[in-house]
Amino acid sequence: MYVCSCFGVTEQQVKKHAEAGACTPRQIASACKAGTDCGGCVRTIQAMLGRGACARRELLDRKRTPGTVEGLDAGTAPDAEPGIAPGAGPALAPAAALTEAA
Fold first, then answer.
1. Per-residue DSSP letters for 24-87?
2. What span, in angstroms and rounded, lies between the C-alpha atoms of 4 and 13?
3. Is the dihedral of CA 13, 18, 20, 23 positive or negative?
4. Which SS3 state, helix, strand or coil, does residue 10 take?
5. Residues in the chain with pLDDT < 50?
6. Structure confidence by residue, pLDDT tens digits, 13-42
7. SS3 for 14?
8. Which of 42, 46, 60, 61 is most buried (CB neighbours < 10 A)?
9. DSSP symbol at 99
10. Alpha-carbon torsion angle 72, 76, 80, 83, nearest 10
């Protein structure tokens, strides 16, 4: 059965790439382009790969420790000041206010 009709990638090809070590849809895409055109097959590929079935993913999870870039909460930067959200700063004046002041 075809998983990706844009590039003619079959279910067997996706399984072959997964057995060779591809753990994510992005890694499958790197191997055979599946999911890189219309994206309609990405959810099917995700379902085929499952969660936690990849030895490489388990190794990555073990390597991640608090204090590393991978261990940071989403939306924080390594050098961000505590209590200040990224992008938080003074509000910009609307363009209309700038033209009135000139």
1. SHHHHHHHH-TTSSS-TTHHHHHHHH-SS--HHHHHHHHH--TTSGGGSPTT--TTPPTT--TT
2. 10
3. positive
4. strand
5. 70-76, 80-81
6. 999 999 998 989 999 999 999 999 999 999
7. helix
8. 42
9. H
10. -100
- Cα Rg, the chain, nearest whole Å: 22
pLDDT score of 4: 96
Residues 32, 24: contact at Cβ < 8 Å?
no
CA distance 2 to 4: 6
The answer to whether the Cα torsion of 19, 22, 24, 28 is positive or negative is negative
Amino acid identity of 21? G
- Measure the CA–CA gap between 98 and 100, rounded to whole angstroms: 6
2: DSSP letter: E
4, exposed or middle or buried, with CB in 10 Å at 0-12, 13-18, 19+? buried
Element (H, E) at 9: strand 9-10
